[in-house]
TrEMBL record:
Pathway: Amino-acid biosynthesis; L-isoleucine biosynthesis; L-isoleucine from 2-oxobutanoate: step 4/4; Amino-acid biosynthesis; L-valine biosynthesis; L-valine from pyruvate: step 4/4; Amino-acid biosynthesis; L-leucine biosynthesis; L-leucine from 3-methyl-2-oxobutanoate: step 4/4. The gene is ilvE. It comes from Caenispirillum bisanense. This is Branched-chain-amino-acid aminotransferase. GO terms for biological process: isoleucine biosynthetic process; L-leucine biosynthetic process; L-valine biosynthetic process. InterPro entries: Aminotrans_IV (IPR001544), Aminotrans_IV_CS (IPR018300), Aminotransferase-like (IPR036038), B_amino_transI (IPR005785), BCAT-like_C (IPR043132), BCAT-like_N (IPR043131), Class-IV_PLP-Dep_Aminotrnsfr (IPR050571). SUPFAM superfamilies: D-aminoacid aminotransferase-like PLP-dependent enzymes. Pfam families: Aminotran_4.
Length: 303
C-alpha cells in the first residue's frame, strides 16, 4: 500500500493560530526558511491521546528559535494548547506531532531581521508496529563519513532544519548500502549520535553514553537515563571513542521516534541486545502508557 503524500491528506493543521484545511497549509516559494534554513522543528509522540513530554518539546522549539536568532511568537503554554487542539481535531490516539517555526518571505537575502516568524503544527496517526521481541532483534548501522559540527561552526543545541542536511545524506547512504541507519562521529572523531536518535552502550553492566556537547541532548535520552538510574544501573556520560565500541556488549538508540531501539551492529562492531535493552524497553513502554503482554507475545513468537 502506498503512503499518501504529506501534502495530500485529510485533516487540519494549526497554522499561525488558526486551524486550516490540511491541503491549504502552504507557504510561498520565496520563504526565507526554504533558501537559508531559518527553520526549527520538533517531533513529538502521542500515546493514548496524550502527547508525551509536551511542554519540554514546546520549550525546546522556542529555545531552538532563539539559537537561530528569532522569537517564536507563542508561549510554551500556547503551543501546548494548540498541539492538543490539533491532536483532538484530527482524532489522533497514537500518533506523531510535527511543530515547525520558520522565517517567512518578507525579505529575501541573508539578512532577514524583519521576516515574520510562522508556526505550524501538524499531526498524523503513527501506531507502534513492533513488539518488544521484534525490536530486540536490533538494527544495523554504518559509520557515516559526515561528522557532527563543532559548536563554533553551527548552532548545535538547536533542533534546526539545517543540521539535518548531513543526517539525510548519512541516512540515504546507509539505506542504499542495506543498513538501517548511520552513526555520526563528531568533529573531534568522538562517538556522537545517529541521524535522529542518541546512542548508548552497555559496558560490563554499566551504561555509557556520549556527553551531548555538540549534538541534541534528547528528551528521550534524559528520560531513559532517569529510568536506568531508577533500575539501579550506573550511567556514565563521557567522551567515547569509536574503538571503544569493541568493549560494549549491548547498544541502543533513544529518541521520540526510535523510543528505545536495540542495535546489533555499527560498522565492524557487533552487539547482542540483552537484559538492559529489554528492561529499558519495558520501562519506557510503561512510562508512555503502552501496554504489552510480554508473556503472551513470547508465547506467540514461540508458537
Ligand atoms: C539528531 C537527533 N538526535 C537526537 C534526537 C533525540 O531527541 P528526542 O529524544 O528529544 O526526540 C533526535 C530526535 O529528535 C534527533 O533528530
Amino acid at each position: 500500500m502506498s503512503v499518501p503524500s504529506f501534502d495530500d491528506r485529510d485533516g487540519v493543521i494549526w497554522y499561525d493560530g488558526q486551524m486550516v484545511d490540511w491541503r491549504d497549509a502552504k507557504l510561498h516559494v520565496l520563504s526565507h526558511a526554504l533558501h537559508y534554513a531559518s527553520c526549527v522543528f520538533e517531533g513529538e509522540r502521542v500515546y493514548g491521546g496524550k502527547v508525551f513530554k509536551l511542554t519540554e518539546h514546546s520549550e525546546r522549539l522556542i529555545a531552538s528559535g532563539k539559537e537561530l536568532g528569532f522569537d517564536v511568537p507563542f508561549t510554551a503554554e500556547e503551543l501546548d494548547r494548540a498541539t492538543l487542539e490539533t491532536v483532538q481535531a484530527n482524532n489522533i490516539v497514537d500518533g506523531y506531532v510535527r511543530p515547525v517555526a520558520w522565517r517567512g518571505s518578507e525579505m529575501m537575502g541573508v539578512a532577514a531581521q524583519k521576516t515574520k516568524i510562522h508556526v505550524a503544527i501538524a499531526c498524523w496517526p503513527w501506531p507502534s508496529y513492533f513488539s518488544p521481541e521484534a525490536r530486540l532483534a536490533g538494527i544495523r548501522l554504518m559509520l557515516s563519513d559526515w561528522r557532527r559540527p563543532d559548536p563554533r561552526t553551527a548552532p548545535v543545541k538547536s533542533k534546526a532544519a539545517g543540521l539535518y542536511m548531513i543526517c539525510t545524506l548519512s541516512k540515504h547512504k546507509a539505506e542504499n548500502l542495506g543498513f538501517d541507519d548511520a552513526l555520526l562521529l563528531d568533529w573531534r572523531g568522538q562517538v556522537a549520535e545517529a541521524t535522529g536518535a542518541n546512542v548508548f552502550f552497555v559496558m560490563n553492566g554499566e551504561i555509557h553514553t556520549p556527553t551531548p556537547d555538540c549534538f541534541l541532548d534528547g528528551i528521550t535520552r534524559r528520560t531513559v537515563i532517569e529510568l536506568a538510574k531508577k533500575r539501579g544501573y550506573t550511567v556514565v556520560e563521557r567522551v567515547i571513542m569509536p574503538e571503544e565500541m569493541a568493549n560494549a556488549q549491548e547498544c541502543f538508540l533513544t529518541g521520540t521516534a526510535a523510543e528505545v531501539t536495540p542495535v546489533r551492529q555499527i560498522g565492524d562492531y557487533t552487539f547482542t541486545p540483552g537484559d538492559v535493552c529489554k528492561a529499558l524497553i519495558e520501562d519506557y513502554d510503561a512510562l508512555v502508557g503502552r501496554t504489552h503482554d510480554l508473556a503472551a507475545a513470547a508465547r506467540n513468537s514461540a508458537a
